[in-house]
């Protein structure tokens, strides 16, 4: 694909919603229009692509959305797109609409779907990483993560206010089925006595009971544990604490609260820069890339390479959380 061949592009949001997706959408639409392209917004992710559920966007279409959480295009998880038949339908819609390139804003699963569509039909795709979990291997940062951890931090601070008034252990369950980035960062930020993440095998005595005992001996009477949802059963953990330490535990599952809210400045700016850069790559004839933050800079990684990369928790952050909880 060369820049002169591009006439029409489309953009969709896929997978779990994340604050900042609207900012990225806004940037793609306005940057595309500035390049002279027609720009379509596809509703409901890959489901909308398969069903031809889209509309042409104007600059006014994305006015006043940069501060809104969620995504005005809406999103979905699309099992049909995981099948060859579903991807064929999607390709046929792109052909019918004359769409030359597609921008996908989403997470790892969304990029794997994009990779398959590119491999099978040569579709020109740019990926923008948007997920609160911050678990995409090719990038140090994903859109939505900063807003999510600040939302969790605010909730934890409020829960600690009441825990301070009682001898109570507050267990805060945060999102992170396979990744502990939200849990680890908020545990450090909120002075937690323990942080339980999927990446580290849980030893209840070592990781939970012993730290509480130590702090109890020092005179502390309230304790905070942060648990990533995929690491362990929070209610079973609460029962262990109650039965072995005689401390009253409470479990607060923050759930979808973490996905919502007005995006932070960091998420708005990162999303905006990535959205403009996505259109630049299309104009340069360099599709088949995922935008990523590496070394604090936004770079482009080949799509196939990006989906194969794995990410691990920062060892310095893990060590910091462990030391500061002692």
Question: What does this protein look like?
Answer:
It is a single chain. This protein is α/β, with parallel strands linked by helices. It is built from eleven helices and eleven strands. It has helices at 21-34, 45-50, 84-97, 108-121, 145-163, 181-189, 204-217, 234-245, 265-283, 303-308, 315-324, and strands spanning 8-13, 38-42, 54-56, 101-106, 124-129, 168-174, 194-196, 222-228, 248-253, 289-294, 297-302. A seven-stranded mixed beta sheet has the order 3-2-1-4-5-10-11, with helices on both faces. A four-stranded parallel beta sheet has the order 7-8-6-9, with helices on both faces. The longest helix has 19 residues, at 145-163. The relative contact order is 0.17.
Which shape, going by the Cα principal axes?
Answer: elongated
Radius of gyration: 22 Å
Q: What is the N-to-C order of secondary-structure elements (H for helix, E for strand)?
A: EHEHEHEHEHEHEHEHEHEEHH
Low-confidence stretches: none
How many helix segments?
Answer: 11
Mean pLDDT across all residues, rounded? 94
Structural class: alpha/beta
End-to-end Cα distance, whole Å, is 57 Å
Number of strands: 11
| Strands side by side in the biggest sheet | 3-2-1-4-5-10-11
Give the percentage of residues in beta strands. Answer: 15-25%
Q: Helical proportion?
A: 40-55%
Largest sheet: 7 strands, mixed
